[in-house]
Amino acid sequence: MSTQTAQPPGPRATVRPYRLTVRQFLKAVEAGVFPHDVRLELLGGIPVRKMTTYPPHNSTVYRLASALRALVPPEWIIFEEKPIVAGRRWRPMPDISIVRGPIDRLIHDDPRAEGVAIVIEVSDSTYADDRGLKWRRYAASRLASYWIVDLKAGHVEAHSDPTGRGDSARYRATSNFKKGESVPVIIGGVEVGRVAVNDFMP
Q1: What are the CA-CA distances from residue 132 to residues 81, 111, 151 (Å)?
Q2: How many Å apart are CA 167 and CA 179, to the nearest integer?
Q3: What is residue 1's predicted lDDT score, i.e. its pLDDT?
Q4: How confident is the model at residue 19, as a pLDDT?
Q5: With 0-12 CB in 10 A as exposed, 13-18 as middle and 19+ as buried, what is 177?
Q6: Domain ranges across the chain
Q7: Residues 102 and 122: beta-carbon distance below 8 Å
Q8: What is the pLDDT, as a whole number, of residue 13?
Q9: Which residues in the chain show pLDDT less than 70?
Q10: CB environment 6-36: b (16+ within 10 A), e (fewer)
Q11: Strands 155-163 and 170-178, bridge-based pairing
């Protein structure tokens, strides 16, 4: 009987997914490549199905958006669950965004990061992505203010002062606001008002 020394496996094949640009993604949507009843985000060139939302999430989005509408200057618009362009291969669909108007400017184009004052994600089961992948991308896009409404923790994380590029991008400042406190709404470096956490947090 002969014996042989086991050889280590050969090099593993590297699988590289094809990553779409925003333009390619929109053309695919228009061509009916994806089902029309499926809501998709483009995250790093990969189409990702938007998760199903539930009543606590939906009511929080509605109440927070209503509170913000009472504060923002008339040249700004509150978008709910509408896409923004945050890079060549990024078209996320934040729960709320405050974008520069007028609305006629957005008839044919999505808002771009430079025209977005605040982006907000209402987070329950999505916290890992909201605080990871999206946190880095929003910082890399120089979105000045990013809020995470953490329903499980019962507080708002307000991130500001973005820096860095790519995977090393981050927000240098974070403030947490809980019930009984108010979150400052800052647009163009100016505080236009505050929203009470009690007014929207379940």
Answers
A1: 19, 22, 17
A2: 33
A3: 40
A4: 95
A5: buried
A6: 53-199
A7: no
A8: 59
A9: 1-13
A10: eeeeeeeeeeeeeebebeebeeebeeeeeee
A11: antiparallel
Q: What residues pair up with 155 in beta bridges, in sequence order?
A: 150, 178
Separation between Cα atoms, residue 165 and residue 156, nearest integer Å? 25
- 187: which 2 tokens? 């647009």
Token readout for 148 is: 């995470």
What is the rounded end-to-end Cα distance, in angstroms, of the chain? Answer: 72
- Helices then strands (H, E): number in the chain? 4, 10
189's tokens? 């470096």
Say what the pTM is: 0.89
* Residue 102 dihedral angles phi and psi, to the nearest 5°: -75, 170
Shortest CA distance to 85 belongs to which of 77, 73, 76, 94?
A: 94
Q: Which two tokens stand for residue 47?
A: 């189409």
pLDDT at 137: 97
Residue 192's CB is within 10 A of a number of other CB atoms, namely 16
May I ask the CATH class of domain 53-199?
alpha beta
Identity (one letter) of the amino acid at 28?
A: A
CB atoms within 10 A of CB 44: 14
**In this structure, what token pair is assigned to residue 141?**
């896009």
The residues, any chain, with a CB within 8 Å of residue 85's CB and separated by 6 or more, are 22, 91, 110, 111, 112, 113
The pLDDT assigned to 10 comes to: 57
Summarize pLDDT for 71-98 with one digit per residue, the tens.
999 999 999 999 999 999 999 999 999 9
